[in-house]
Design brief:
By secondary structure, the protein is α+β, with helices and mostly antiparallel strands. The protein is built from twelve helices and seven strands. It is 49% helix and 12% strand.
Length: 286
Amino acid sequence: MGTVTTFDPVSEHEKTRTALAAAIPRLARLLRDAPDLDAPAGVPRWSVGDVGAHLASVYLAYGSVVTADGSLDWGGILPPGDLPFVERIAALNATSIGLLDGEGRARLGELLAERGETFLRTTEGLAPDTPVTAPWYGPEPTLTVAVVTGLMLSESLVHGLDIARGAGLPWPIGRDEASLVIGQSMPTMMGLALDAAKARGVRIAFDLVVKGGPRLAVVVDDGTMTVTRDAPPRAYDCRITVDPTAFLLVSFRRTPIWKTIASGRMRAGGRRPWLATRLGELVATP
């Protein structure tokens, strides 16, 4: 069944902070160098400037929830709490690109740098398991500082790629950065994003092996999902071995899964390898 190694949550959290601290100025330069903020980005219906405005809103939101007073007023921003997860996030994303006026968009790079640095300064010294409530995911989910930091890095890397594709500029995503996102945020977020209707009656245990990174036990059981790092040995239906950067981009629908399989960066094994594609079908994205 393979060896399972344990990880140090404090050390990994610090590595994630370091990776985020390196990504923020890269993003600021990318937006300053983008020749046309109105050019189509690497996501449907959004321009390069729209993606930058969304990121600025994301940075502001996460910065707000880690401050003592939760300084952002969510009353007029949040969609209704009873919307399904994907619809809720899609509605909030649509709102986020309109939160900046023309002056804000003209200084997107500087704004991202300021807000990113504020987040890192505010969270410095906080334990990785410090609870954080993120109201845009609904009234109940409570995350941790480690998960939120991983999500900030995830948003930076993936949306940095969207901006770069629209601007015709390079945006490499390193395997170590992608591994940190997978290990820090996905164990929590995969379960939140589960399509419960599609998962009803489904019982599959996936062994997700990230090359050079974390190993996750992903267990779907009749409409619920648990994702565990360093899980004790057990029988799995399907083992998925992935390159971390490829898995990050497939998870966020930035690269088609067939291309990742064809390039050898994702392969399936175990008793029922044909179930590998079900994982992406069960975890929804806005």
